[in-house]
Amino acid sequence: QVQLVESGGGLVQAGGSLRLSCAAAGRTFSSYVMGWFRQAPGKERKFVASVSRNGDYTYYTNSVKGRFTISRDNAKNTVDLQMNSLRPDDTAVYYCVADADGGGQYEYWGQGTQVTVSS
């Protein structure tokens, strides 16, 4: 089992940057595929990005490619999401997630952190 705590959300103007961090508590952090989801007001939660267990492979939803970068540090049990060129439609609650078996079912979720992008 793993506990996830996000930080780094806030209010930023369009075109600005934010860096989200997720600290994981529990054993064998490096055994989890890690990712980020987001939920905009009135909408379903959607996948944003993921990173493989050793950090070699990353995946992004099309709308954030070239703007967001996911990374992990297995020595520190952290996963970050660097968000650049933010747009108002990036406004959402962002969730850090963990997938134990790599099958795409993220069993563990953080409590979420709010990101608001003003125009």
Notes on the structure:
The chain contains no helices and eleven strands. The chain has 119 residues and is an all-beta fold. The strands form two sheets. Strands 2, 4, 5, 6, 9, 10 and 11 form a seven-stranded mixed beta sheet that branches. Strands 1-3-8-7 form a four-stranded antiparallel beta sheet, with no helix packed on it. A hairpin with a 5-residue loop joins strand 4 and strand 5.
Instruction: Kindly state the number of beta strands.
Output: 11
Number of helices: 0
* Mean of pLDDT: 96
The gyration radius over C-alpha positions equals 13 Å
Helical content (DSSP H or I, runs of 4+): under 10%
Class based on secondary structure composition and strand pairing: mainly beta
Topology:
Layout: E1 2-7, E2 10-13, E3 18-26, E4 33-39, E5 45-51, E6 58-60, E7 68-73, E8 78-83, E9 92-99, E10 108-109, E11 113-118
Parallel strand pairs: 2-11
Antiparallel strand pairs: 1-3, 3-8, 4-5, 4-9, 5-6, 7-8, 9-10, 9-11
Q: What is this entry, summarized?
A:
The protein has 119 residues and is mainly β.
Keywords:
54% strand; 0% helix; 119 residues
